[in-house]
């Protein structure tokens, strides 16, 4: 049987009714209330012609049958309502990185051909700059966040629009062929929309399976155990990132309650821990060391009662051994789960650690559909081969990248008649069958859970008249996991200061993409063909740090 998000939530809501579905700040929404509000949004979208346009069968792998709804929002009830409501309308919501500047947003909204945008008021000024650049005028729904903004021309207040819309079931039949769309810039340069059939996404990314790994045969079979669970999950990262949204949706599919911390405009460790204590959160999602370090420091400073916490999950970045040990010392009853995967592959492998385990380098247990392919992408590697290859995923994988046939073919190759997802992670299979991750072959930098594509930053920094040549690399950071470093060869007779370089970059890039340090060299090392030597650049960045 093919499942879809809207049908699952509707079916669970019919059973769970007044049980808490979503908690944020001083408000709790029941399953019935979330269902009604998402239906109202769905009917509003349909009334404005935002829905499904054709069947999936009529689309190539890089095409979408849906109108697309941008979620330009901080975490909150509106984000989750809109994700669900768009699906009920036969449309497809997509994530918007709220750190993007106007140039980046314009690219995203044009690439997605956004038919509607749900936005928080604090982003109104940037959105106003972007709207004249779009091919179409999207439906605008502004969520009031107290920022005192004026409604943009033609925009409607989110709450008023919902109140005026019908709470009846929308006139759209949903199915497993409806798409889940996730924009990622990690391995593709400019952001690309990954297109998942919801039926595939539920199994491969959210792990909607029986305990023995087989798939459910009916909706009733999925719902019945969910009614017995009592799960409260806090996804601490922004919902605009796949890991957080997947964690939230998994919670709902398990019949659980999603908890959102009070402070959503930045990472506030005290607020996250207070929310865990106040709502007796049982599962907390973080992003590697960048989240774990401040949370550990805050818990040591002022211990909270975390007796209800059972799981700490990390997605998007791996926890270092030392911080895993500290977490288990502070909260000994938890199980730490490192999830290995990507927007293009779903969940590929997990590593689980509990108190008493030997803590060393992370070793992942692969899923049944994960594999490591050889360098030439012609054969599967076997445990103990000793060869470093490409981590790949078979079975249920995305259809492709929205609007990009070439990148779809490159990331989802067909090998011996089987289609694979090969996002770019390098890995080996140890003799015991566990996956040893070696990291991305590409030059993507992961800083605090955000992915930064080095070549994009380089092109922008070259706008500075004093930059003759530049490479951008990641350098290890105790705070961010990696920090962005610019290795610069100046134009003769010019000086390049970090703040001037950042000022140039800030005109085109989100702040997290800007270099945190600059390393001046006489020349950039490149091959005779002009290809950059990133290994050399990283050595320069690390050596400069050691000298500091």
Describe this structure in words.
With 548 residues, the chain is of the alpha/beta class. The chain contains 16 helices and 28 strands. The relative contact order is 0.09.
**Taking Cα atoms only, what radius of gyration do you get, to the nearest Å?**
23 Å
What's the mean pLDDT score? 92
The N- to C-terminal Cα distance equals 60 Å
Strand percent estimate: 25-35%
Shape: globular
Strand order, main sheet: write it out: 2-1-11-10-12-13-14-15-16
Summed up, the helix count is 16
Structural class: alpha/beta
Helix content: 25-40%
For the sheet with most strands, the description reads: 9 strands, mixed
Strand tally = 28
Q: Which spans of ≥5 residues are poorly predicted at pLDDT below 50?
A: none
What is the topology?
Blueprint: H1 5-16, E1 20-24, E2 27-30, H2 31-47, E3 68-72, H3 77-88, E4 92-95, H4 102-112, E5 116-120, H5 124-130, E6 139-143, E7 156-157, H6 158-164, E8 179-184, E9 192-197, H7 198-204, H8 219-226, E10 232-235, H9 242-253, E11 257-260, H10 269-278, E12 283-286, H11 288-301, E13 311-315, H12 321-330, E14 335-342, E15 346-354, E16 365-366, E17 370-373, E18 389-393, E19 400-401, H13 405-411, E20 414-415, E21 418-419, E22 425-429, E23 435-440, E24 444-447, E25 450-453, H14 454-461, E26 467-477, E27 481-490, H15 498-506, E28 517-520, H16 534-547
Parallel strand pairs: 1-11, 3-4, 3-5, 5-6, 6-7, 10-11, 10-12, 12-13, 13-14, 27-28
Antiparallel strand pairs: 1-2, 8-9, 9-19, 14-15, 15-16, 17-18, 18-22, 20-21, 22-23, 24-25, 26-27
Helix pairs in contact: 1-3, 2-3, 2-6, 4-5, 10-11, 11-12
